[in-house]
Amino acid sequence: MEINYFIFVPIVLIAIILLLFVIKRNQKDEKKFEEDMNKDSGDPESHPTDKI
């Protein structure tokens, strides 16, 4: 069985490029998510009329 490098090499290169793209995008999305969560955690709610 002989490997056809004209088909195998481009598929491997495309897979590596796709993997790097997904990793880079995930890191950017994770950073944006952390920034959004930090902005979202403002002052806690206050209920001055509630008595326990």
UniProtKB/TrEMBL annotation:
The chain crosses the membrane at residues 6-23. Keywords: Membrane, Transmembrane, Transmembrane helix. Residues 32-52 are annotated as: Disordered. This is Uncharacterized protein. It comes from Daejeonella rubra. The lineage of its organism: Bacteria, Pseudomonadati, Bacteroidota, Sphingobacteriia, Sphingobacteriales.
